[in-house]
Specification:
With 104 residues, the chain is of the alpha+beta class. The chain has helices at residues 24-43, 73-88; strands spanning 46-53, 58-65, 94-98. Strands 1-2-3 form a three-stranded mixed beta sheet. Helix 2 links the parallel strand 2 (58-65) and strand 3 (94-98). The N and C termini lie far apart (42 Å).
Length: 104
């Protein structure tokens, strides 16, 4: 296994499912790409938080602040965030917005 704990499907034991959320190198690449985008989102009062990467490499993001209620958030998600993430992390197939559970 690689020293940086980067697990790929071929590194998994026989019969074990690949879990992208355990792949520290993949998570770091996604977070680095999001860190480049966050200042632009924050300039408009919003941000995003990585919540999950599914088995089929779909990044699930929580839209924060103004992004959660912005009528343009779908376009920003597809034309901005998804395109930038897929350029930086080609393993990613899609980006989806998810609602975070309410905290009281």
């Amino acid at each position: 296994m690689a020293d940086d704990m980067h697990l790929t499907p071929s590194d998994q034991p026989e019969g074990a499912a690949y879990d992208p959320n355990q792949d520290t190198a993949l998570l770091a690449k996604v977070e680095e790409a999001l860190d480049l985008l966050r200042p632009y989102l924050m300039a408009d009062g919003g941000s995003v938080r990585l919540t999950n990467i599914t088995q089929d490499m779909v990044v699930e993001l929580e839209l924060l602040g103004a992004c959660g209620t912005c009528p343009m958030s779908t376009m920003t998600l597809r034309a901005g965030i998804e395109q930038a993430l897929r350029r930086t992390v080609p393993e990613i197939t899609r980006v989806e917005a998810v609602n975070a559970p309410a905290t009281y």
